Amino acid sequence: xxxxxxxxxxxxxxxxxxxxxxxxxxxxxxxxxxxxxxxxxxxxxxxxxxxxxxxxxxxxxxxxxxxxxxxxxxxxxxxxxxxxxxxxxxxxxxxxxxxxxxxxxxxxxxxxxxxxxxxxxxxxxxxxxxxxxxxxxxxxxxxxxxxxxxxxxxxxxxxxxxxxxxxxxxxxxxxxxxx
Amino acid sequence: xxxxxxxxxxxxxxxxxxxxxxxxxxxxxxxxxxxxxxxxxxxxxxxxxxxxxxxxxxxxxxxxxxxxxxxxxxxxxxxxxxxxxxxxxxxxxxxxxxxxxxxxxxxxxxxxxxxxxxxxxxxxxxxxxxxxxxxxxxxxxxxxxxxxxxxxxxxxxxxxxxxxxxxxxxxxxxxxxxxxxxxxxxxxxxxxxxxxxxxxxxxxxxxxxxxxxxxxxxxxxxxxxxxxxxxxxxxxxxxxxxxxxxxxxxxxxxxxxxxxxxxxxxxxxxxxxxxxxxxxxxxxxxxxxxxxxxxxxxxxxxxxxxxxxxxxxxxxxxxxxxxxxxxxxxxxxxxxxxxxxxxxxxxxxxxxxxxxxxxxxxxxxxxxxxxxxxxxxxxxxxxxxxxxxxxxxxxxxxxxxxxxxxxxxxxxxxxxxxxxxxxxxxxxxxxxxxxxxxxxxxxxxxxxxxxxxxxxxxxxxxxxxxxxxxxxxxxxxxxxxxxxxxxxxxxxxxxxxxxxxxxxxxxxxxxxxxxxxxxxxxxxxxxxxxxxxxxxxxxxxxxxxxxxxxxxxxxxxxxxxxxxxxxxxxxxxxxxxxxxxxxxxxxxxxxxxxxxxxxxxxxxxxxxxxxxxxxxxxxxxxxxxxxxxxxxxxxxxxxxxxxxxxxxxxxxxxxxxxxxxxxxxxxxxxxxxxxxxxxxxxxxxxxxxxxxxxxxxxxxxxxxxxxxxxxxxxxxxxxxxxxxxxxxxxxxxxxxxxxxxxxx
Lengths: 179, 744
Description:
The structure holds two protein chains of two kinds. By secondary structure, chain A is an all-alpha fold. Chain A folds into two domains: 5-133, no CATH class; 136-179. Chain A has helices at 5-18, 27-37, 43-53, 60-100, 106-132, 138-152, 157-170. Chain B is of the alpha+beta class. In chain B, helix 2 (22-35) packs across helix 4 (58-93). The interface between A and B is large, with 112 and 104 residues.
């Protein structure tokens, strides 16, 4: 069943509200909404979209929204999702900007200081969850380690992902659950 | 509407050229906004904090804020649309391709590789963000609270909790437990942050060994850690030497060959394990022997110091010691006739021939005292393990990031104070006056400028690209900049910039008329405009702040008719080579290939040559290749500057001395008449009667022979935060940080 446009708008608005910490950290938020809550897309579908979103120009979150929503309801869905995912932040930022008038109060800094470790935890949990979806064995573990090392040393992400995809095609790897 | 379009296009462009998301866009945004004069960098930094505190794409949030700030709601909409659209358009256009990709059986296989890679990517991103998450925590309780929030959130996420709910909890927990506390007293990093700190920039420093202190960052770094017998009195103009580790100026024998120094008692090296245990925990006391050792070390071929020229051919027996060391390895216990320490407080330097510049070179970092124990203990590691008597010690360093200096414990027993050359209210203050210095390694000027504006640095050069918005046409500081607590200091620098003609080049070397023609094509007024007025017209090689400089107008000024006449005389009428009938083609080597400024200046020079009907090819090279090409004489012309080693005309005139060809005489200029005058003046000590006249005579010879194109004498502008007391820039700044002070 194809999700309705209002349902899509609502879901991407929720994602837009919860995506703290920027593009890479938004992946688990997408998974939580689109896969676990709605059951529209599988986590590995989303992982593929996430990889593509990072490999083309632009803002990761917007790219990710376009790619994932296009599966749900074509181009109109993609446009609506892109709009919805940006809207909450846009409004919030404008409201805060005029309220705070360029001074960042200590209480807000404290809130951010609390958010930062939570974003870390979200990233770690997402990494664990993704890794659980891959079969045990030396090859996947080596791939994960290699990708982590490449990221730490600031290798270009699209290149890392392209190599990983090539490894998937060329090496005997299988996802555990094909769903 | 135009503002809308401009904003849209700027952010569209930034987004279009950034793959991999927001954090890659932020530096580009910061620079573009500042460069267009839309938003000062410090304000953007504030926006960044807000953008991180709100959900959604960080870069888009920052774009929205900037747009709103500069052009209201339309600006915000324009910026947001601009940032989001490239990916949207791209992906919609790629739609069919993406659909086919996903349907292919290979995509399933590719996903099997992508899943673990993405897991690795997410984990690595967490690691990269880790320092930021914990750095906002000051002190142990905050670290514990941060760790607790992390652990609880992780547990909740693993049990499938909704991100929004966990984030709400985390924000509340942060507000409850992570309120920024007022600065605490006591030890630890928090106390270090509270120490008054001078914040400047530097470049990556390869080592802190005075023997290798050839470049500016290294001389400045070693000047904080080590000291020499003499230094420049920091406030005195004209420049004047003053004793530092010596008790007074040396006693010089009437024949000018023997210099006797008395060494100050009670000078201690910084504490270091290489000295064993000293009762009071400080390093060993400095003795005259340390200078004998350090000067021999400069001569040791194994040390490969770039500074041996300061003693070569002058100190009795040292060249022989060096030759023996090259043969059999250095033996530091073999005496050198010209370097002796008859007792712990007395140092005697004997010269093989008069060397009036000795006092100047003794103030250079090459002549700083290094302790033999440390060199022998640390070997090759000595360069990164400095042990000196200087006012500061290296308290921390992260190469490519920053270097931190703190007051040396050894200065607790010293009573150095600001001298009589200073303004009256500064005299007698105990040194060093600022306890901590942090030098950030900043690669490019625009970043340094943004940091300076944001208040993260105390000093900055005036960046070329922002010059007009900082310095007004009359040379004063723009009001908006002054209002930020910034003051302008201006000083002539001890330098001359020039274009050399390679004397070994068949076209140029034997053809003074051609050199004169080219000199008449050089348009100093256009050059000065290009240099933002920070250059003075050069009458000759010696800058006017040095005794013996030429006065009056240069012999060759921009004059196309005269250039034409000289060209005809040179055998290239109208700039054409009669042999080929084509325009004479010359080439100019330019180092610093990556600098836009070098390219623009080369293009300006090209236009001057074209005015005379000459073709000028520009050969851009990186700096090491440029130096190598110069050394091997493989350039025809090259653009260079000479920074004086000491404030003496001889130091500038040596650049034309025939025997220095292949060395500092990079032009390979040879002129018997000049050499005779140079040799006469070089034998006289500075200040001797008639010496300044000889200097002017020598300068006149080379300037009338058009040995170089004399581009000008650069002047230096420095911006300083007004929290610092004003301090005039010095051409020899090493060791002067100890005199810097904050306004009380």
